[in-house]
Amino acid sequence: MSRTVESNGDASERAYQAVLQMILDGEAPAGSWLREQTLAEQIGVSRTPVRQALNRLAAEGAIELVPNRGAQVVSFSDEDVEALFDLRARFEPLAVRLAVPQLTEERIAELADLATRMEALLDRRPLDTHQMSRLNNAFHGIFLAEAGNRHLTAAMQAVVRPALVTLTFQKYSERALRLSMHHHAELVEAARARDPEWAEAVMRAHILAARHAGE
Questions:
Q1: CATH fold group of domain 78-211
Q2: Where is the HTH gntR-type domain (predicted)?
């Protein structure tokens, strides 16, 4: 009889998704402490993949690793959110302008597929904000990866935090979600047209609209 053994990479990803979902669902609220052993028992993995998951979440800014104490869920204040959107509005349009001339047809096809999949999620209720966030991060990540400026890419990857993006999606109105999807579709068209200025303008409008999406 064959038995499927979960690889460490799979276990680490499962632990990451489980802990992230705890944070997003409020099961692990801001300020709460996450213990490796407790999480390992809850998720059904060893402590090693949990530790890897916590390191990843710390790198993304969702938790803070405190020496001799453990991992604490980060609280995002209104000022934090405003500051992050300010940075995105300044630098992500630049990343898009740099990336568009470098995009291959395969990369543009990936963007189109991601945009289509996000659009399809809008018709499902309740909205899967976690999946929407994952697709959204992949979409934006293509532009960052192809910008050709590793310093800009590293800076933006620190700013575009998955936990914060998902929490933002949870506050979106229906109209704001539709507008966001429209921007994604227009970014794909700008990429196909090889028009970096168009793409830059759309991304700037996209970020500014996201800032006010929950109002």
A1: Four Helix Bundle (Hemerythrin (Met), subunit A) (1.20.120)
A2: 9-76
